[in-house]
Write a structure and sequence with these properties.
This protein has 9 helices and 5 strands; from the N terminus they run ββαββαβααααααα. The chain is mainly alpha-helical and 276 residues long. It has one domain. The longest helix is centred in the C-terminal third of the chain and has 38 residues.
Length: 276
C-alpha cells in the first residue's frame, strides 16, 4: 500500500480512504484542494466535498437518464426486460405509498421513488473495490477520493434537511400556521402543560431529519470501514472475507434505501394528518 510513492501504515491507509476530496478556502484567503487532513479541517464548514457532490450528481443523472429513456420507449405490446424491471420498481413504490400515506398528494410517490433509487445507486458504490477508483484517481493527480456519497454525513443530512423542509411546508399548508403551532404547544398533554408539550414535540420534530441522516450514514460508514479493514489483510484472506461480506452488504444497500424511503412516506403522512 502506497501513496505518492511512499509506503503507508495501516493507520494512514484508513485515514486516506476516509478523507474526502475537499475544496475550500485556506487560512491565507486562497482557495484550492486540501492535500492533507489538517488542511481539510482548516477549511471549516463551508468547504466542498467534490467527490460526494460529483458521484451524487453522476448517479442522479444516471437514474434520470435511464428512467427517461425507458419511459420514452415504453410499449404495452412487447415490453422489454428493462421496462418490466422498472415497472416492478414503480409498482413496489406505489404499493408502499398506498399502504403508508393516507393523504392526497401527487408528489409523495415520485419523491419516494427518487429517494429510493438514488440512495440505492449511491449505496451500491460501496461494492466497488475500495482501492480501485482511488488508485485510478491518483494516476491523474487526485490524492483523495471517497466514492460512496452516503458515507459522507453532508450528503445524508442534505437529503434529510430537504425532507424536513417538506415536512414543515406540508404541516403548515394542511393544518395552517395556527394549527401547526397548536399541535406543537398543546399536544399531547393539553394547554396546561404547554412547556412540556413544546419540548416533547420539538424534540420529536427535530429527531426526524437527524434519525434519517444518521441511520443511513452510520450503516453505510460501518460497511465501508469493514471493506477497508479487509483490504488491510493479506491478499489470500481478502477474497475469503470480502466476497461473503459484499453479498451480505447487498442486503444493507437495499434495506437502508427502503428504510429511508419508508420513513419519508410516514413523516409526510404525519404532516398531512389533521386530527390533532
Amino acid at each position: 500500500m502506497s501513496a505518492a510513492g511512499e509506503v503507508m501504515t495501516s493507520g494512514s491507509y484508513i485515514k486516506h480512504h476516509l478523507q474526502n476530496l475537499t475544496y475550500g478556502q485556506f487560512p491565507d484567503g486562497s482557495w484550492g484542494l486540501a492535500h492533507s487532513v489538517e488542511q481539510a479541517k482548516e477549511m471549516g464548514f463551508w468547504a466542498f466535498h467534490l467527490d460526494t457532490l460529483g458521484f451524487s450528481f453522476i448517479l442522479g443523472s444516471l437514474f434520470l437518464f435511464l428512467f427517461y429513456s425507458v419511459g420514452r420507449r415504453m410499449t404495452a405490446e412487447t415490453p422489454s426486460g428493462i421496462q418490466n424491471f422498472i415497472e416492478s420498481i414503480v409498482d413496489f413504490i406505489n404499493e408502499n405509498v398506498r399502504g403508508s400515506f393516507n393523504g392526497k398528494n401527487m408528489m409523495v410517490a415520485p419523491l419516494a421513488l427518487t429517494t429510493f433509487i438514488w440512495i440505492v445507486l449511491m449505496n451500491t458504490m460501496d461494492l466497488v473495490p475500495v482501492d480501485l477508483l482511488p488508485y485510478l484517481a491518483s494516476l491523474i493527480g487526485i490524492e483523495y477520493l471517497k466514492v460512496v456519497p452516503t458515507t459522507d454525513p453532508n450528503a445524508t443530512f442534505g437529503m434529510s434537511i430537504g425532507i424536513f423542509l417538506l415536512i414543515l411546508y406540508y404541516s403548515i399548508k394542511e393544518k395552517g400556521a395556527g394549527g401547526f403551532a397548536a399541535e406543537l404547544m398543546f399536544h399531547p398533554f393539553g394547554k396546561l402543560m404547554l412547556p412540556f408539550n413544546l419540548f416533547l414535540e420539538g424534540v420529536n420534530l427535530i429527531a426526524k431529519p437527524v434519525s434519517l441522516a444518521l441511520r443511513l450514514f452510520g450503516n453505510m460508514y460501518a460497511g465501508e470501514m469493514i471493506f477497508i479493514l479487509i483490504a488491510l489483510l493479506p491478499f489470500w484472506i481478502q477474497w475469503s472475507l470480502s466476497l461473503p461480506w459484499a453479498i451480505f452488504h447487498i442486503l444493507i444497500v437495499l434495506l437502508q434505501a427502503f428504510i429511508f424511503m419508508t420513513l419519508v412516506i410516514v413523516y409526510l403522512d404525519m404532516a398531512h394528518q389533521k386530527e390533532h
